Every structure is written in structure tokens, then in C-alpha cells.
Amino acid sequence: xxxxxxxxxxxxxxxxxxxxxxxxxxxxxxxxxxxxxxxxxxxxxxxxxxxxxxxxxxxxxxxxxxxxxxxxxxxxxxxxxxxxxxxxxxxxxxxxxxxxxxxxxxxxxxxxxxxxxxxxxxxxxxxxxxxxxxxxxxxxxxxxxxxxxxxxxxxxxxxxxxxxxxxxxxxxxxxxxxxxxxxxxxxxxxxxxxxxxxxxxxxxxxxxxxxxxxxxxxxxxxxxxxxxxxxxxxxxxxxxxxxxxxxxxx
Length: 250
Hints:
This protein is of the alpha/beta class and 250 residues long. 36% of the residues lie in helices and 29% in strands.
């Protein structure tokens, strides 16, 4: 049985790590490299780092990503501002194990296909940022500022068809609220896709992690619970283990 992964999510804004609420109001947590070093000692299974300004800025801060990767002793998924295979090449060269694609996918579906053809599907993560509405759950891009007008499940399936090996599913409505994951959303998406689903958005308690895995997620991604609640990765893993969920403890 595959072990459930616990993945801290770090949002880059300049040289700092920030945390948002519903993708807005970024609050500074600390220096990027220093924060990564802290998590590197805490038995995280992987780490997700997303530069929330890269697409708007039009460039990827490769120098900072390289410094971060040198301090990271676990698999590293990097997102933000990836516009081409060449951008992915640059991130893989400086230490990324996976690249995360969001905004570019909606204007060029081939971006995932081209990267996965070169590096393998396991190296490409599709970031599915979603928001509920009266007409259903829609996919958003550009840090939740652009409504793609595509249903979330359709976006997920299309990304997988093009070669995405994992879905990073983030609820905009729940982001930073610490009131629990959108379990209905997790169940809906995970039951209809053929790749692992990493659930994000809403974690504020160890029990939320149990709930989201039972809803169908393959991995738990979180930030606020570490920054504002003070929970540790190891205590979350121990809680999952006590609830019959396999995790890596060593």
C-alpha cells in the first residue's frame, strides 16, 4: 500500500514566504530559504513551492529557487510562471523534481504534453484551483483572478489526457480558512480521475487530514496548520497512523 504523503505548501512573494486567505491578503511568514530549512528537518514527504507573482511578473526567480533547492532534502514541486518547456528545463536543472502547471494550461494545452513527453508524466503536476458557483465548480487561473469558464472535473480530465501525472487540487473558497477541506469536492474529483490527487485548502486540525484522505485524496497539502496553529508534520503523521492510514514515520 502506498503511504500517504504530508506536503507543506510554501507560497513565494519576492524573497518571502506568505500565506493567503482565499488567495488574497498575503501575510508574510518569513524568509524563503530559512523557512525551507525548517521544514527540511521535519520529516515532510515532499514540498510544494509556488511563486504567486511569477506569472504577473513574467519571469521565474531561478536564483532563489536554486538556493531553496539546496536547502531542501525532500522531493520538490515548483510552480509559478512556467510558460514553456525551456522554463521547466531551467527548474529541473536547479533541483525541481516536479513542475506545477496552472495558468499557461488554459491558453496552451500542449504545455503539459510537451513537458511530460520530455520528463515523464510523474514530473508534471496540474494545479487545479477551483471555486464553487451556482452553476457548478469552475477552474480558475492566474492566482484565482481569472475564471477559465471550464468545469473543474473537465479541466482535470483534459490535463491528465495531455500528460499530467498528478492533480494538486486547491479550493479557493477554503484556502487559509482552517475550517476543513472541501470533502465533497475531493470526493468528486478523486473518484473520476486516474492519477493521484493532492488536496489543499482549509486544513486547520489533524482530524481534517484524516477526513480528506478518507474522502479520496492521496496526499495532504497544508500551510496554515503549520504557520498559525503550530502543528507539526510528525504529529499529523502519528494521528493518521492511529486512524489506520499508512504514513512514512522515519
